[in-house]
UniProtKB/TrEMBL annotation:
Name assigned to this protein: Glutathione-disulfide reductase
Gene3D superfamilies in alphabetical order: 3.30.390.30, FAD/NAD(P)-binding domain
Signal sequence annotation: none
Annotated positions binding NAD(+): 182-189, 269
Highest taxon in the source lineage: Bacteria
Source organism per UniProt: Gluconacetobacter diazotrophicus
Sequence ranges assigned to domain FAD/NAD(P)-binding in this UniProt record: 5-325
Family from the record: Belongs to the class-I pyridine nucleotide-disulfide oxidoreductase family.
Active site as annotated: 444
Cofactor binding comment, as recorded: Binds 1 FAD per subunit.
PROSITE patterns assigned: PYRIDINE_REDOX_1
Binding positions for FAD per the UniProt entry: 51, 147-149, 310
Length: 466
């Protein structure tokens, strides 16, 4: 059978665009459909605008910190509308770049919502970007689902008064009082953004510590950093209802307490974006909240249909989606080309709070399940804050497998932690040992040099003995 396209990608986020471009570069006839945002969640409603807003939130602190160095810079009034306009301008520029990249690769673009009619046929109809788009039907030998994820909103009385991260990027004004629900990446990052810009923030989360799944020392460190930022934490609690009180909202918690806020923001997880795909028409299996099941090659249970990125709900990070898309395109169309491989097990991660957290490899708890580990831990006041007087600590940690002496995990809270961790991720991926770190000369004076000067073991951990 002759198909309209060799490959059709549903979703023009980071993973889908990379897959389409690489496949087209190998000579495949490729098309992409996007119904909402060229560039996907990361560019439009995720990591890019969020990072810009984190940076905006830090200028107040920088102005105050300058006094310790002899400057008399005074914090001024923050113009929320100006920030949002500048952010939107940059996002529009990036949208154009994504479209241009696809066009230069000679990828056919469809604006609209793509839905399966069968395993090789898609119907493309109106979507948010093109509400009046005509209905078109196309066929493809292979189809890649790269539709990402969307915020979860719990079912509780008054939830219609709350917002998710999607809406937070487009608020007309900055709320003076924010109740943030959720102790993961998004909740912590937005709590820091609003607090840095001058809002009062209450952070509510179910665990005793934020960032479930992260290294325990880092969780304690971020808990302390959140408090030092002036954010009120309501730990071990969950909201049970939201109701209007005048121009504000009362959020009732399960311990009987309440929070009064002008904005109630839920950051309690995301789910795969599969509702409009018509997966049942193609026979594609999903589990656990819509997650598309794939094998090691990215293929679903239906031959010729693949899924990459957040829609598989495995490791929901933009660089992972890009890696999956690139590898898939190489495997499918890179004749005589060795597919590029990535070490997903050592994918570095960052939480852009102030100060930020970054990590790569195993936590102490994970590493100890496989045997005895040596822990090297440093906690200190960074040089800048010896003059500013700000109560901000840097925490750095290496997790070393005792038997092999390989550094299997690196973790840090402190200024520029994400920038440092990218380099450390190379070392952990390469399987370098503690001796390799020790024989590396540091750059002085920096915080980064601590990673190569931690000579004294802090403790030995063996969870198997528990």
């Amino acid at each position: 059978m002759m198909y309209d396209f060799d490959l059709f990608v549903i979703g023009a986020g980071s993973g889908g665009v990379r897959c389409a471009r690489i496949a087209a570069g190998h000579g495949a006839r490729v098309a992409v459909a996007e119904n909402r945002h060229w560039g996907g969640t990361c560019v439009n409603l995720g990591c890019v605008p969020k990072k810009l807003m984190v940076q905006a939130s830090e200028y107040n602190d920088l102005a105050r910190d300058s006094h310790g160095f002899g400057w008399n810079i005074a914090p001024g009034h923050h113009d929320w509308a100006a920030l949002i306009a500048a952010k939107d301008h940059e996002i529009s520029r990036l949208n154009g770049i994504y479209v241009s990249l696809l066009e230069k690769a000679e990828v056919t673009l469809f604006t609209g919502t793509a839905r399966f009619e069968d395993a090789h046929t898609l119907v493309i109809g109106p979507g948010a970007l093109a509400p009046d788009a005509p209905v078109r039907r196309v066929t493809a030998e292979r189809i890649v689902i790269a539709t990402g994820s969307a915020p979860d909103m719990p079912s509780l009385p008054g939830i219609e008064h709350a917002i998710s991260s999607d809406a937070a990027f487009h608020l007309e004004s900055r709320p003076q009082r924010v109740c943030m629900v959720g102790g993961g990446y998004i909740g912590i990052e937005f709590a820091g953004i609003f607090r840095g810009l001058g809002s009062e923030v209450d952070l509510v989360y179910r665990q005793d510590l934020p960032l479930r799944g992260f290294d325990q020392d880092m969780r304690h460190g971020i808990h302390d950093a959140i408090a030092a930022r002036g954010i009120r934490q309501h730990t071990g609690r969950s909201p049970v209802s939201i109701q209007p009180v005048g121009d504000a909202y009362e959020v009732r918690l399960d311990d009987g307490s309440h929070v009064i806020a002008d904005c109630v923001f839920f950051a309690t997880g995301r789910s795969p974006n599969v509702g409009a795909l018509g997966l049942d028409h193609a026979g594609v299996d999903t589990v656990a909240g819509g997650r598309i099941v794939v094998d090691g090659t990215g293929e679903t249970n239906v031959e010729g249909i693949y899924a990459i990125g957040d829609v598989t709900n495995r490791l929901n990070l933009t660089p992972v989606a890009i890696a999956e898309g690139h590898s898939l395109a190489d495997r499918l169309f890179g004749t005589g080309h060795h597919p590029r491989s990535w070490s997903l097990a050592t994918t570095p991660k960052a939480v852009f709070f102030s100060p930020p957290l970054a990590t790569v490899g195993l936590t102490e708890e994970e590493a100890a399940r496989d045997g005895i580990v040596d822990i090297y831990l440093a906690r200190f006041t960074p040089m800048r804050h010896t003059l500013t007087g700000r109560a901000r600590k840097t925490i750095m940690k290496l997790v070393v497998d005792q038997a092999t002496q390989k550094v299997v995990g690196a973790h840090m809270i402190g200024d520029d932690a994400p920038e440092m961790m990218q380099g450390l991720a190379i070392a952990v991926t390469a399987g370098l040992t503690k001796a390799d770190f020790d024989r590396t000369v540091g750059i002085h004076p920096t915080s980064a040099e601590e990673f190569v000067t931690m000579r004294t073991r802090t403790r030995v951990t063996d969870r198997q003995a528990d």
